[in-house]
Amino acid sequence: MSFMKISIARNITDREAEDLAALMPQLSPAATALDRRYLETVLDSGATTLFIAKEGATIVGTLSLIVYPVLSNKKKAWIEDVVVDRAARGRGIAGLLLDAAFDHARKQGVKKIDLTSANSRAAAHELYEKKGFQKRDTSVFRIELTD
Length: 147
Prior knowledge:
32% helix
């Protein structure tokens, strides 16, 4: 097994774009196809920090941390797109990605981080609770905007 490393993606190579595109359907079958140009747009947004877990040259996990200011003069953060390759699960990679995101958020003055997770993802829920997340008594509302 190659050495595993967690890092923040600053630039995306073609290989990394391919690895990320292969990971996303493991999170959601409805995931849209990713390409390098779109990933660069995400990185250039200024709000999203993309954490990647690599074994050797291959990305085996990812997590997006979105930090944004709100009118209450605070910064909030949201975690999205936590996924570890099926072949690499059970080795603590998601926990390492979360720890890296927590450290990064603290350095930016964030006090609270939210995330959502599908009800069917019991293993993920167990990890989130182990890491200190608490299930909130709230409802998530969504509207799908069409052209």
